[in-house]
Amino acid sequence: MSAIISTIALSVTWCFCTACGSLLNACCGNDKASTIPPSVTSGRKRSVLLLFVALAIALVFQYYIGPLIIDSDEYTGWLSERWLDACSEYDDQSALLEECAGNMGVFRVAAATTLFFTLAAIAAVCKPTANREAWPAKYILFVFMCAITILIPSDPWFDSIYLNVARIGGVCFVLLQQIIILDMALDWNDSWVAKADAAEAEEAGTGRKWLGAILVSCAALFTVSIVGLCVMFAKFTGCGTNNAFISITLILIIATTAAQMSGEEGSLLGSATISLWATFLCYSAVAKNPDSECNPAVGEKDGLGIALSLGTTLISMMWTGYSWTAEDKFKRNTDEDNDASEPTIAGNSATPGDASGNRKVTGVVTGNDYGAAGDSEIPRPTAVGELDTEADEAAKNDPRRLSNSWKLNVMLAAISCWMAMSLTSWGEIAAEGNLANPQVGRVGMWIIVGSQWIVLTLYLWTLVAPRIFPDRDFS
């Protein structure tokens, strides 16, 4: 047995030393010839892939390693003590003990992931190209970080310190998710408007089907939101807290939709997606209420909430990693002079009156920030997905486009916190109808509903602010 442990320790040590050496070479610029730079998108995609790996490891730790440590307590000894020292109060309740052990496994992987992307953000600040270099070594380092967390006591590092860090990061993700959702909806809207304009140009009347598709999509999203609110009114009312949460959500959804339809800001599809996101957050909040009078599922594992949370996590990871528009969200405006005129990007959706089919980029609506003075010399891609010319490659590999790659890592660190909160129901320990820590559920409830109010208020502000202060530039 000791020989096996020694072999594993030596192997992990060798991998760690190799990873450190590769990272050092990458920082010094010696891992690859400077004439053959990695693709600018490689760092984003590999970062997202690593987050998928982290999610898989977290699930293994939660549903296999955690219970295994309990069952093999007599063989693991000191390892079991470090893993379960935060779960000692549940020793006489096997279901809650298993739930607690699983949560400690998730926190370990999520903490390693958050730390990894935090360090990656710092490295990207020091060296803008660091995000796309030495990825084999980074993966090895990440696996080592996950492995080393097994040796760290759960109390207080994971059940207290990281739990609170992850709550803060989860709130940040909720706010950032609003940007991602709006970006997805507006790109979706712009794409179909462009197709409608193109079809209308070829044959009059044919573009209406695309505009109709937008309206059908909006109707579907609003319908799901309304049905969700009705279900919550039917099953999660009975106490003032839940009644207030559901009512305020409905009022804010109506207010944001009315504000959008009464002006030219935003798009109806954007309001529909934000309404659905707000409905999901409201459900997450009322399902955390520890009061059994208004929560029929109190003490039970919220499978639906976990599934929906993981779904939003996966969508965010995919969009952040593979969307060209998402990449532009993390691109820095390299000049502070904002008096230059706005350029256009060919190939995107057309605006009314623009016969060329070009779209003017206006920060609030599209989220892009092309066109600041001093930035025009950077080659731009002519269309989303069309990156096969030398000018496009120059645009992708320009150092100024990489100078804010640290923002991507901060975003992924927030996603890792949200992942931890999703898998553990914000730190709740519940099984077989028994809620072991109702105060934790109450804290999670208020965190989620507070985040929802901020999200809807900020979105409402982006719609009404240009009307209240017409002389100010809100782009």
TrEMBL record:
Subcellular location: Membrane
Residues spanning the membrane: 6-27, 48-70, 106-125, 137-154, 210-234, 240-259, 306-324, 410-431, 443-464
Family of the protein in this entry: Belongs to the TDE1 family.
Lineage of producing organism: Eukaryota, Sar, Stramenopiles, Ochrophyta, Bacillariophyta
Keywords noted in UniProt: Membrane, Transmembrane, Transmembrane helix
Name of the protein this chain belongs to: Serine incorporator
Pfam families for the chain: Serinc
Main location: membrane
